[in-house]
Amino acid sequence: MASQSSPAGVPPGFPKPTNYLAAADLPRALEHCRVLLDELLQHEDGWVFAKPVDTYEPGLGDYHSEIRQPMDLGTVRRRLERCRYQNPLCFASDVRRTFRNAMTYNYKRDDVYKSADALSRIFESGWASISATLQSPPPVAMRRARLKDELPRLPVDLQGKAVVIMKDIGGWIQEVDGRVEVDLDKADEATLDKFEWLLALATMRKVIILSIWSPCVSDLGSIIFAMLDSNLVHLYCNVV
């Protein structure tokens, strides 16, 4: 026995995350997630959960009637590599589902149950340090001050996206005496989220450019298209 595959659908809209992560810090947080996932997969029992459960194996014909949302660590790895997680909480949810499914389908006396329980404990121990970086959102005034300082430094094309967002809220971004100034007084928290994702996109571009020269990067094309998506993704579990 052991693992699983596809995602459940995500309802439309942009629900607020239960924890806040500054968008520009997202790549670093997901890198910590990757390291933790590698630790799980390299464990002596990690292979059990590395692929979707093969329901054609004898005795597993009822698997999908018992487990409605299959998941496995191999699928989690692919989603990380393809930048499908826009929030570390979504990564954690998939890992937990992998082990929860195994412990739901198998008896406590079974080796798979025991392996899932052991790996779940390892995950929760490692996740604690990642979770510590997910904090309550800073005050709106502090977010506005940071954005006023950083938005003018965006690449020209991303500044263009910022202008569009500004027009939607009746604000403005313009050059005054040779210096770009930003009016964020009318920006609510949802709008601030959008601007922070622009900063994140700029950061991710830099990471991609540096990574082109690294032999360790896989599926670079998928990363580029995911990170430079024209839709301004928000911090919620939009796993596709």
From TrEMBL:
Q: Superkingdom of this entry's organism?
A: Eukaryota
Coiled-coil blocks: none
| Alphabetically ordered keywords of this record | Bromodomain
A Pfam family name for this chain?
Answer: Bromodomain
Name all Bromo domain ranges.
41-113
Q: What PANTHER family does UniProt report for this protein, alphabetically?
A: OSJNBA0053K19.4 PROTEIN
- For this entry, the protein name equals Bromo domain-containing protein
Q: Which organism is it from?
A: Triticum turgidum subsp. durum
